[in-house]
Write a structure and sequence with these properties.
Chains A, B: InterPro entries: ADH_Fe/GldA (IPR001670), ADH_Fe_C (IPR056798), Alcohol_dehydrogenase_Fe (IPR039697). Chains A, B: Keywords: Oxidoreductase. Chains A, B: Belongs to the iron-containing alcohol dehydrogenase family. The structure is a homodimer. By secondary structure, chain A is α/β, with parallel strands linked by helices. Chain A has 2 domains: about 170 residues, Rossmann fold, CATH 3.40.50; about 200 residues, Up-down Bundle (Dehydroquinate synthase-like, alpha domain). Chain A is built from 14 helices and 10 strands. Chain A has a 6-stranded parallel beta sheet, sandwiched between helices. Chain A is globular, with a radius of gyration of 20 Å. Chain A starts with a strand and ends with a helix. At the A-B interface, strand 1, strand 2, helix 7 and helix 8 of A face strand 1, strand 2, helix 7 and helix 8 of B.
Chain lengths: ~375, ~375
């Protein structure tokens, strides 16, 4: 076993934990907060609620919401320009993965200079970032917990993975109340994203006991509480999805991911589709590809999926993959790649680009572009 | 569910992770390190090894080792005086719970003023502490991960529990190589301490999913790897005990403890015995006392202890307690209170004092002095 690193933010989790937003920012030295969110959140009223909290704490703020659903390099650059112009000192993000990843990009560029592209890959950030307080509005992306930021390079049409311990925010405030305004399809996309984090982190080459307990528990909670939430959008159920998403993020942030995410990042860059809808399509095929290299780990997952064991670890693993496919079908989401990719001829290019994604490094089985093409054809 | 808080340091875990000691201190702004250890560690050569690492990094240091096995208020005051006199900026601790808790006390007094007694109890620290980097030499106390510091008030002869999120060190460097120089009895005392952390945290009123996965895994690992380590003191086995101790600490730091620790702190204050030897004596009796209030949680523990389930949760829980008693007996440690308390007449005073310990607040079943006396008599 090599030297393992485990890093997570300070976490506040529970109903109305939102009230800590101002206190946490102030404790980190905030005088003028750079507040990142997006127009979707504005319409729910949560952005106003945070304004009120900051005002109550007598904290100044600059608000920036020019963030698209896959945040772009140009939006980071504009944000960093505003941060510096107004002399902000703490970055606060409210939203799903997009505002949070954008906030990380802005914090990165404003403290380390250059362009966000300069930091693509793992461990390329040298200087400390300004303090970051994040409040996720989905139970999934894990950006509030993780060392990852995903930013789209518009010219190359590729989602860049930037991975560094310094991208872990100082504080994550996880308030399930925020999930009550999410529509059904976004609840599903979010939970499925968290599930894919947990599955890929669990079989990752970098997984270790401190991450494995979280990945396995996340899988268990999502399998159970996503269907319950779709029946009854209660705070008690949403709270369990919040815990699941947080556990999944604690796992993947420290153990990294695999082929499913390498391909999802590339597909997301080329097609600009919602990240969460890609996993039901790719994940089972990726798990089947990985099986020869991680039978026991996939059997652990299978045991959670089917609630028991079959005759052999391999049989349990396969039964788990099948159960997962049925689970996805029961959610009524797309499960075939042809549903989201307009032309099959795009696949070789997508797979070629995916070979450059950092997530590939921790996948349990090596894969080149051709291997990923076979996965995509399996999922077609 | 209320608002849950989860806070752990950045963790480096693995063989030779010690090499990060200087780098981590420097990253936190160190120019002159206040280095706390104890004479026992000096004789193993690990103190010299750390001097070399600091010298190699061109970091200055002041060394302080006047720490007894239950660190005393006066030792904290002397340490704080030296810290200020020499203008130190980062606190580094190498050792078991005693040097680490002492280092926390010194960091606390030097930044917040007054006496360490002023902060007894939960959440009484107002100002930030200097950065702390800890390197544990036992796989147990969890002080390197936790929000706790235990300091003896010599006048009152009581171990004070000081609990605050600001007592979580910035970095914990967990190098199992350090355990290779530990004698058998200290390996046992340490692992048993970690086991008691995990059991009490698991049934705590403050337990929640992010802590429960760690408490349960810690129990599983210690049950398996302590006996293996006593047969073969290999790095692979010691590594698993390190992971177990860290998991247990992640659980108890965020979920707190219970009656076993309230009594252990008081016994330790009055008798000055090694903390780890108290748990085999008290823990099974405490679990039996708690049973009516946490059957399901104790059944989860029982399932790990016996590797399966009995007819009912209560039967599984009781079988687990019995298995734990047999486990302690197999280790050859004292399992009766009469072995360590010279006079039975001391018990009422000890139980009276224990009612003031903060750990009592999170115990699943309320207990007054009389209840604790019945536990002590059960364990006599």
């Amino acid at each position: 076993m090599g030297i393992l690193k485990f890093s997570v933010p300070e976490i506040f989790l529970g109903r109305n934990s939102m009230k800590y937003a101002g206190v946490c920012a102030r404790r980190l030295g905030a005088k003028k907060i750079f507040f990142v969110s997006d127009p979707g959140l504005e319409s729910t009223g949560w952005v106003d609620a945070v304004f009120d909290i900051f005002d109550h704490e007598k904290l100044k703020w600059v608000y920036y919401s020019d963030i698209s659903s896959n945040p772009r390099d140009s939006q980071i650059e504009e944000g960093a320009r505003l941060y510096e112009k107004h002399g902000c000192d703490v970055v606060f993000a409210l939203g799903g993965g997009s505002p949070m990843d954008a906030a990380k990009g802005i914090a990165l560029v404003t403290s380390n200079g250059g362009r966000v592209h300069d930091y693509e890959g793992a461990n390329r950030i040298q200087k400390p970032l300004p303090p970051m307080v994040f409040m996720p509005s989905t139970a999934s992306s894990g950006s509030d917990v993780s060392q990852f930021a995903i930013i789209t390079d518009m010219e190359r049409q590729v989602k860049m993975s930037i991975i560094s311990r310094t991208l872990v925010p100082n504080v994550s405030i996880i308030d399930p109340t925020l999930l009550t305004t999410k529509p059904r399809d976004l609840i599903i996309a979010a939970a499925v994203d968290a599930l894919s984090h947990a599955v890929e982190a669990h079989v990752s080459r970098l997984a270790f006991p401190l991450t494995e307990v979280h990945s396995l528990r996340a899988i268990e909670l999502i399998m159970k509480y996503l269907p319950l939430t779709l029946e009854d959008n209660s705070l008690a159920n949403l709270e369990q999805l919040s815990i699941a998403g947080t556990s999944a993020a604690m796992a993947f942030s420290n153990a990294s991911l695999g082929i499913d995410h390498a391909l999802a990042h590339t597909l997301g860059g080329v097609l600009d589709v919602l990240h969460g809808i890609i996993h039901p399509i790719l994940l089972p095929s990726v798990m089947r590809y990985n099986l020869p290299k991680c039978v026991d780990k996939l059997a652990e997952i299978g045991k959670v999926m089917i609630g028991g064991s079959m005759g052999s670890p391999e049989a349990t693993a396969l039964a788990g993959i099948e159960a997962l496919e049925n689970y996805f079908k029961s959610l009524g989401v797309s499960t075939r790649l042809r549903d989201i990719v307009p032309e099959r001829s795009k696949i070789p290019q997508i797979c070629e680009m995916a070979t450059f994604d950092s997530c590939l490094l921790s996948n349990p089985r090596e894969a080149d572009a051709e291997d990923m093409m076979s996965i995509c054809h399996d999922a077609w």
